[in-house]
Write a structure and sequence with these properties.
The protein is 30% helix and 16% strand. With 309 residues, the protein is an alpha/beta fold. α4 packs across α11. The longest helix has 12 residues.
């Protein structure tokens, strides 16, 4: 089975440190902090932390602008082609650019979202830093306060439609035997026992199975609750992905198998991209991200939501 895996999608810290001066390498820093605001959460990009010290050569990009198109309903769907082309060109990404992306979450939700967006627009030379900035810093690896220049490079989007699911696509897929919908939020949110940060209704998309995003780094029983999620988001613990064989067993146990069409979602499409990234590591080749996710779905009263009894 291991020959079907794609571990090269991950950049390991040893490799990155040895290749920091590669001419065609572009490193992107997406550090941000989710924080509570009353009963909800907001995302704050952390440029101040970036300027205080980052992986040498890394350029900063905001996690909620440029590669997403914020809507009034709170959802953060995919940026349209012309908007993303501008974003990528300003980062200096051309056809031969090798990208390594990181953030500072316990597992790389923002980095995975940008990885997925580049793939959706046809750029395959993209890796995610395993362990992200937290692990890089914890290991005492080099940091820089220099703000590197980003020469303009013409980026041409080449849309890959199978990698994305819209609300309409997902609605049509409900109850389809050949499709598995994966909810990447904690199990207690999936069940409807606690509110979702960016959803307006309790529960889940009907028929969805639960594979919490944090379970990609920690055992499922540890990662299941909103309390564990909150602790991971607000702490400084550094994690790597679990061994791929363990991840394969976890997804298969949830009914996520290679013969199915897989659609991942969460609340804003970031944890969903993390789920899609892990499935890509495992060699699944029919995986789409619903980027509107529950922030969009739960606000449309014409769409069904279910809860556990």
């Amino acid at each position: 089975m291991t020959e079907r895996y794609n571990p090269a999608l991950l950049a390991e810290a040893d490799w990155l440190e040895a290749h920091l001066n590669d001419a065609n390498l572009r490193i992107v820093d997406l550090r941000y902090r989710p924080r509570r605001s009353g009963d909800s959460w907001v995302i704050t990009d952390d440029r101040t932390a970036y300027e205080a010290g980052h992986v040498p050569g890394a350029v900063f990009a905001e996690s909620t602008r440029g590669f997403v198109a914020a809507r009034a309903d709170g959802s953060l769907p995919l940026a349209p082609p012309e908007m993303f082309a501008e974003f990528a060109s300003r980062l200096g990404v051309g056809p031969d650019t090798h990208l390594v992306i990181y953030d500072d979450l316990p597992v790389p939700n923002a980095a995975a979202r940008l990885w997925w967006t580049f793939r959706y627009y046809g750029h395959e030379r993209v890796q995610v830093l395993n362990g992200g900035f937290r692990r890089w810093r914890a290991q005492g690896r080099p940091l820089s306060t220099e703000l590197p220049a980003c020469p303009w490079a013409a980026f041409t989007p080449r849309v890959q439609p199978p990698l994305r699911a819209t609300k309409e696509v997902l609605r049509a897929a409900l109850g389809t035997p050949g499709t598995v919908i994966v909810d990447c939020m904690p199990s207690d949110m999936h069940a409807g026992r606690v509110p979702r940060p960016w959803g307006v209704r309790l529960g889940r998309i009907p028929g969805a199975v639960s594979v919490p995003w944090l379970a990609n780094a920690l055992p499922e029983e540890v990662a299941a609750t909103n309390e564990a999620r909150t602790q991971a988001l607000t702490g400084d613990d550094a994690y790597c992905y679990r061994p791929l064989e363990e991840l394969e067993r976890m997804y298969r146990a949830a009914g996520v198998t290679r013969d199915k069409r897989i659609i991942t979602y969460c609340d804003l499409g970031y944890a969903a991209a993390n789920g899609a990234f892990v499935l890509a590591l495992l060699g699944y080749d029919d995986v789409a991200v619903y980027d509107g996710s529950f922030a969009e779905w739960s606000r449309d009263e014409s769409l069904p939501v279910e809860r556990s009894s």
